[in-house]
Amino acid sequence: MQIKTAKFVISNTDPLKCPQSSKPEYAFVGRSNVGKSSLINMLTNQKKLAKTSGRPGKTQLINHFIINEYWYLVDLPGYGYAQVSRTQRRKWQDFVRSYIQHRENLTCVMVLVDVRLEPQQPDTDFIEWLGVNGVPFAIIFTKADKISKNQLAKNVAHYKKELLKTWEELPTTFITSSETKEGSKEVLSYIDQINEQ
Ligand code: GDP
């Protein structure tokens, strides 16, 4: 898929205010600073569609973008940032979880994971919650350029092994880097494939 147009539609904290739609929708989520904004900008080939930020935990809104006038890309607030208060964390849980549980056109949740790190509890908890709720998801490993190919292969294999402790089957995974654009085509083809089904 080539992204010809990517336009901002609306930001809000109220799942009921998301655009009324039957268009397929893909939500991107992960711990703050995982590289979500950079990935969205890479996928859409735009420099500033999603705001990259040196201040993790800043974006606390559900952001809808319409892609090629056909599907929605949703930038969800990052989770698990230590400096965000307990109240704010609970608020995240409430509105993001409510959005994920009730959004009928939500096709797949893309869970972003920093490939340099050991599996992190907030990610594994969230992935498990998606499973319990029967929400389709894929895992996108980010920042692949930051480690050697050898280390990358080791980390991905380790992550998958950890997942297999709780999952019978592995989800679809992607290895990406916003620096080198690695994985961009693969993620977009995956979305394309689902959209065409
Ligand atoms: P977000 O908080 O998840 O939206 O993360 P950002 O996209 O703002 O990225 C957080 C930091 O990681 C920024 O300094 C980015 O430049 C950096 N970053 C994000 N993706 C990559 C990547 O693929 N490679 C490298 N080397 N740095 C990245």
Protein described:
There is one protein chain. The protein has one domain: Rossmann fold (3-Layer(aba) Sandwich). Helices cover 34% and strands 21% of the residues. It is built from five helices and seven strands, in the order E-E-H-E-E-H-E-H-E-H-E-H. A seven-stranded mixed beta sheet has the order 1-3-4-2-5-6-7, sandwiched between helices. A hairpin with a 3-residue loop joins strand 3 and strand 4 (71-75). Guanosine-5'-diphosphate is lined by residues 32-38, 52-53, 56, 78, 142-143, 145-146, 177-179.
Largest sheet: 7 strands, mixed
Give every kind of bound small molecule, once each. guanosine-5'-diphosphate
Question: Which sequence of SSEs, written as H and E, runs from N to C?
Answer: EEHEEHEHEHEH
This entry's quaternary arrangement is single chain
Low-confidence stretches: none
Q: Order of strands in the sheet with the most strands?
A: 1-3-4-2-5-6-7
Which range does the strand content fall in?
A: 15-25%
**Name of the level-1 CATH class:** Alpha Beta
Number of strands: 7
CATH fold-level assignment: Rossmann fold
Radius of gyration, CA atoms, in whole angstroms: 16 Å
The portion of residues assigned to helices is: 25-40%
Total DSSP helices: 5
Number of structurally distinct domains: 1
Average pLDDT over all residues: 90
Query: What is the approximate shape?
Result: globular
Q: What would you give as the CATH superfamily?
A: P-loop containing nucleotide triphosphate hydrolases
Euclidean distance between termini CA atoms: 14 Å
Q: Mind telling me which CATH architecture this is?
A: 3-Layer(aba) Sandwich
Structural class: alpha/beta
Protein name: Ribosome biogenesis GTP-binding protein YihA/YsxC
